[in-house]
Amino acid sequence: MKEHFQLTVSDILKRKHFEHAVVLAGEDGLQRIVKWVHVMEVTSIRNLLNGHELILSTGLASKVKEELFVSMVKELIEHNAAGLCIEMGTYLSDIPPEVIDVAKEHQFPIIVFQKEVPFVEITQDIHSIIINQQYLKISDLENYSQTLNKRLLTIETYEDILQFIFSSLDVQIIFRLKNQDFEFVPQIHQNEQLAIISQLLEAKNQQNHHFAFSPIFLFGQEYAELAIFSKDIPISEFDLLILDRTATALAQHLLRDMYVEEKKRAEEFEWLHGWLEGDHSPDIIQEYLMENGIKTKTKDAIVVVAKFFPLKDKLSQDVTYLKLLFRSVFEQNGFTVFTIEKRNEFTFILLNNRTKKNLKDRIKNAIVSIMETEFIRKKSSVKICIAAGKFIENLNEVHKSYQTAKETLRIQQKMTKGEINYFYEDLHLFRLISQMSDHINLQELASEYLQPVLQYDQKYNGKLLETLKTYLECNGSKQETSNKLYIVRQTLYHRLQKIENLLGEDFMKHEKRVAIEFMLLVFDYFSAADPQKLNQIL
């Protein structure tokens, strides 16, 4: 470790006035650090110490009772004093054996002066060394901060900052962005990494002087963590100050990166949103693709919209994974992917990179693959609706695909029964119903055709509507209809007679039949979207 000189009890024994001092007990504790010197002549020092003080005493307070002397030494040890220096002769002639035993047990140095020494000169001498040390630390810390701040102007990655603190302290640097893996500077073997990580996690719950931590906060939330580990020498105060300054610099750098990334993302979002709205010419689109290193083999494209409906309050935990999942699957199926994220909705602009023949199949395969992943089926906290717009052959018509994708999504959300249609081109009459419903009261129109059947079912539970749908789907085949409904022919004949009485004998004639089939679709459309609208038909 690149360490500032730290004054120890052993160093002090080499100073003037300690030539004839004798270490009576606690020789194994001579490397204790000394941060200050106190002259004390009281037995209770509980509220007088901060730790690492070297105590000078004539023994005046200790001569009264041996128990008080022992108690005082125990308090010094408990409050992490550096050692006890006692002047012999004036008030004490010897040190009680119990005191010596306690000092040896806790490796607490007890030093005796065989003759009178000037305590004032001792304190002046040692304090001058300590003050000079502090001045040197402050000076070095200021130089470190200034150099680091200058480097922040040119540093490109946070790894450069980690290298800088390592070069200054020569300790193991451990860094982790939130929810990511630990990074080590310098790089060490994986087994060593695992061992240090284990110790680090323990040190967070149980004090360990060989580790130090500094969380890095952005916008009031912990965004990263910086830690240092010294294997042989305990972490010093200077190390902690350097760690704190470095953490501040990392926060500034990460915040700058976030700002740049967010600005870039906002500019990209604005451009892509303009593409979806039809604001860009073919030349501008081609220029954008070239700037991003994208070469398209065709001009075929389609827009796919995925909307998420959170089932729990943890959508944000899944969004990143979902985005990567969609992108990966679409790319594997031969598409260049542009993603626009807005609230709980992703919009994907897919540029075709393969033959046009199986374009729709590849889109469908991709959607099915996504919906069948284990994450979606078992672990996802959201319900997902996916809708594809119309296929386009010119990249400046992306807005048309986008508008139809949104229309597909809107219809799909209403059509909650039966098979899901992902593609705009597969909606057929439902597209017409959706557009007509904006201008015509289709519920009222449907009631003209279906109200008698619906009212009969509501009153008698006659299952006439189900029978009517199936009969029309089977093109009037009584055998096929009875098989699909799992009823005998006589029951079917009875139901068809009721339908004929309610709708008229001509309900299977071409024009009326087409109208009834259309109204059944209208019924499905509105009943799936809002069951309460059945009342308007009934």
From TrEMBL:
Protein name: Transcriptional regulator CdaR
Originating species: Neobacillus massiliamazoniensis
Highest taxon listed in the record's lineage: Bacteria
Domain PucR C-terminal helix-turn-helix: start-end pairs: 464-521
Pfam families in the cross-refs: HTH_30, PucR
Stretches assigned to the Purine catabolism PurC-like domain: 11-130
InterPro entries membership: CdaR-like_regulators, PucR_C-HTH_dom, PucR_C-HTH_sf, PucR_dom
